[in-house]
Amino acid sequence: MAEGAPLLILGAGAHGGVVRDCVDERRFRFIGYLDDRPPDPLSSARSELLLGKVDDLPALLRDYPGTMAVIAIGDNMTRLRMAERAERLVPSLTWATIVHPAAILSARAEIGPGTVVVAGSIINCGSRLGRHILINTGTIIDHDNSMDDFASTGPGVVTGGNVRIGGLSHVGIGASVRHGIRIGRNCVIGGQAYVERDVDDDWVSFGIPARPRYRRAPGQPYL
Questions:
Q1: How many structural domains does the chain have?
Q2: How far is the C-alpha of 10 from the C-alpha of 93, rounded, in Å?
């Protein structure tokens, strides 16, 4: 069997360990993490595989030709900033798409570069996921959904068909979204919410049924 492409994970925190577990070793050869922070003894990422800081990326790509990368950062805006930083360091950087072998992905779904789909998730036919999206554990994305770049779901999210989720938006743990709903850009849907109405850009919504509660500034923390 041919050896998979070398893979670097940017981010060695707890989420780095989750992303590492998603790597299909038939397609990729994990070589280590890059992170500006010192090793975290409580992290599920293995500190002995911390190869350096993010600024070491150009040198590592020279040492490992053909290396691809993926970002292991849960917060959407922080993930966006890391992608921009990495692309400034290496404009030709190739982002890997990581789908856990235990996820179910329709042959008629489209998944963009840098996106991670965690174990137990289902992406149904006709759905289109953009760049650097995080689909967390056990999420169900039904048919003909779209998610724009740098959006994310928490574990256990369920969407109906024809749902639209804007860029940099997050749907929280266990939330459900009714079919045909549009969630705007830079929104947060609270955990366990049921979304039955469209949500405009820049709103935090929660409750059953979910209702807009307050406006959200770009990059405002939600994790």
A1: 2
A2: 13
The answer on whether 112 is annotated among ligand-binding residues is no
Amino acid at 143: H
What is the pLDDT, as a whole number, of residue 1?
41
| 120, 209: one domain | yes
Burial class of 120 by CB neighbour count within 10 A (0 to 12, 13 to 18, 19+) = middle
State the SS3 of 117-160.
Answer: ECCCCEECCCCEECCCCEECCCCEECCCCEECCCCEECCCCEEC
List, by residue number, the catalytic residues: 143
Residue ranges, the chain, pLDDT below 50: 1
- Is 74 within any annotated ligand binding site? yes
> Within this chain, do residues 92 and 119 fall inside the same structural domain, yes or no?
no
Question: What is the predicted pLDDT for the residue at 223?
Answer: 80
pLDDT (tens digit per residue) in 51-98: 999 999 999 999 999 999 999 999 999 999 999 999 999 999 999 999
The span from the CA of 173 to the CA of 73, in Å, is 17
Q: What is the pLDDT of residue 2?
A: 55
